[in-house]
Design brief:
- This protein is α+β, with helices and mostly antiparallel strands and 218 residues long.
- 59% of the residues lie in helices and 18% in strands.
- It has five helices and four strands.
- It has helices at 2-93, 103-123, 135-140, 194-199, 205-208; strands at 154-161, 165-176, 179-190, 209-216.
- Strands 1-2-3-4 form a four-stranded antiparallel beta sheet.
- A hairpin with a 2-residue loop joins strand 2 and strand 3.
- Helix 1 (2-93) packs antiparallel against helix 2 (103-123).
- The model is unreliable at 95-101 (pLDDT under 50).
Length: 218
């Protein structure tokens, strides 16, 4: 009888130990799953935050470009207006001795002046503009960006000049630990015609900038 009681107690103890082991194992697994889930959520949050910050950098770079192009148009128009003033003075001072300048030739000159002035402003090679910054230098300057935080996003840009347009490539990069997000934007700035700006005085940068590509790098 005593042996049966000892045997029963021993069996109970084994069952109790097994039960505790199973509970501890289940608890450990649940804890591990919770930790993994937390890390996944944290990583996912960091990925999203990085992506949104890189995207914000690209969006702000596009806004900077639009504002810069608007200023380039205004500058080019001002150069034509200066030419008009000089021409009017010449015609006024010498109207008795000189024939009036052929209107077609004058319009051609205005178009050339407008075209070259617009290009100089975009490239930052104007000698009479203050401050005299190029579009690329503005895009690369982190101080130009409201979204910039702790050095990110990093903006890199490249300009290629063609006869009647500029090709712009912009990349916004945001890195946090091993997480890296890159957004690229490619667009061209078409050099506007002076006669178009005369007819449509409300011409905006949106009419001049043509987006070619806006994507996330993999």
């Amino acid at each position: 009888m005593i042996n049966l009681k000892h045997h029963s107690k021993g069996s109970t103890l084994v069952i109790l130990l097994l039960t505790i082991s199973v509970v501890v194992l289940i608890g450990t697994m649940a804890m591990s799953l919770a930790v993994v889930n937390f890390k996944m959520k944290k990583t996912n949050s960091s990925v999203k935050q990085n992506f949104y910050l890189a995207e914000a950098g690209i969006e702000e770079s596009y806004i900077i470009a639009r504002e810069f192009v608007d200023e380039a148009v205004k500058y080019a128009i001002s150069k034509v207006e200066e030419f008009d003033e000089i021409e009017n003075q010449i015609n006024g001072d010498f109207k008795d001795r000189l024939l009036s300048i052929d209107s077609e030739l004058t319009e051609d000159r205005k178009s050339i002046i407008f075209n070259e002035a617009f290009k100089r402003f975009i490239k930052g090679t104007c000698t009479d503009a203050s401050p005299n910054h190029s579009l690329i230098s503005m895009l690369k300057d982190n101080e130009s960006y409201v979204v910039c935080c702790n050095g990110y996003p990093k903006i890199s840009s490249q300009l290629t000049e063609f006869t009647d347009y500029f090709l712009i490539n912009v990349k916004s990069t945001c890195v946090a630990g091993h997480i890296k997000n890159e957004i690229t934007l490619k667009y061209k700035i078409v050099v506007p015609r002076y006669d178009e700006c005369c007819v449509d005085k409300d011409i905006k940068a949106e009419d001049i900038i043509e987006i070619l590509e806006w994507k996330k790098e993999r």
